[in-house]
Amino acid sequence: MLVLAGCGSSASPAASPSAAPSAPSGASAPAASGGYGVGGGAASPWTAASGSSLAEQLQQQFVSVVQTVSPAVVVIQTSSGLGSGVVFDNQGDIVTNAHVVGTATRFDVTTSDGKSFDGRLVGTFPADDIAVVKVSGQNVQPATFGDSSKLVVGDIVMAIGNPLGLQSSVTEGIVSAVGRTVTEPGGASLPNVIQTSAPINPGNSGGALVDLEGQVVGIPTLAAVDPELGGTAPGIGFAIPSNLAKDIATQLIEHGKVVSSHRAYLGIRAANVTSGGGVLVYAVTAGGPAAKAGIKPGELITSVAGQPISDFGVLSAVLAGLAPGQTVPVEIVRADRTKATVQVTLGELPG
């Protein structure tokens, strides 16, 4: 079972090896008899004959990206801890994680050059773990947000943030997978997240996952935890795609809330049962999708869209993969222990 941990502040660092950079696309080795590493002693793509210049170019690109993006990555501190944020626009809006801001509405915001400002909450949307904080009347440098839909497995990325309070720290790795659905410790399921081998440590949350063009392609959010040994699992971190972060942040800035979540909504409040055989509905939103389908408090939901529901986390993950307006079968056990299947037209999760 994969266990995840939010990347808030922590007292001590955990060792995580960073992935070695791969040769850039287009790199090639000089031809020689005998093949690589066998007999004829052919040069590797990274030898002085051809590879050192490519390696130097890659290194300089790393340095350039860090120098470009770091001024846009800030420390966001509350009374309960700290995380990171990325300057979103020229108006002082900063995108971060909802779990970084928590219940706070005022923040200490510190830039990479050590300047400190007062920040206030613009809005938060825990369902996608995105929030916006604003510093007014300050000249802060915004980052450039890229198109996360263009990411492919193997792309080199860097995570820039403030892990363990170490300001403007950088780790590197690759995109390990795209389109993951992960569930946070608080129960929110995040669809279509980016998995990366760039180490994500406590304090990285809300920072920047950037590509080699210096564009923010994700917001680092979670690290996997080894359930047997404890502590973070090296090389398994997750980031919210930049396209989603841009969409939600823009809505929060313009409306103070999310008006179009694009998230499926059942319209119930439910609790886990000790048997693990479903979730118990204890409240139904009047006029909501579940109510319209005839689902009532006291009933047990055991399956949604053909997928068994063992607990609320699973239900949240299933809904994260569905769309508003979609009609799906929902299997229930009524209070009198009879079973039924109802058709539910899913609504849109309100902001």
Could you characterize what this model shows?
14% of the residues lie in helices and 37% in strands. It has 351 residues and is mainly beta. It folds into 3 domains: 70-134, Trypsin-like serine proteases (Thrombin, subunit H); 143-255, Thrombin, subunit H; 264-348, PDZ domain (Pdz3 Domain). A 6-stranded antiparallel β-barrel has the order 8-9-10-13-12-11. The chain has a 6-stranded antiparallel β-barrel with strand order 2-3-4-7-6-5. Strands 15, 16, 17, 18, 19 and 20 form a 6-stranded antiparallel beta sheet that branches. Strand 17 (300-304) and strand 18 form a beta hairpin. The longest helix has 19 residues, at 51-69. The two termini are 31 Å apart. The model is unreliable at 10-49 (pLDDT under 50).
Write a concise synopsis of the structure shown:
It is built from 5 helices and 21 strands. With 351 residues, it is mostly beta strands.
> Spans with pLDDT under 50 lasting ≥5 residues?
10-49
Q: What class do helices, strands and sheet pairing give?
A: mainly beta
Report the radius of gyration as a whole number of Å.
Answer: 23 Å
What CATH architecture of the largest domain would you give?
A: Beta Barrel
The CATH topology of the largest domain comes to Thrombin, subunit H
The major β-sheet equals: 6 strands, antiparallel, barrel
Amount of helix: 10-25%
Q: How many β strands by DSSP?
A: 21
* N-to-C order of helices and strands: EHEEEHEEEEEEEEEHEEEHEEHEEE
Mean pLDDT score, rounded?
86
CATH H-tier superfamily of the largest domain: Trypsin-like serine proteases
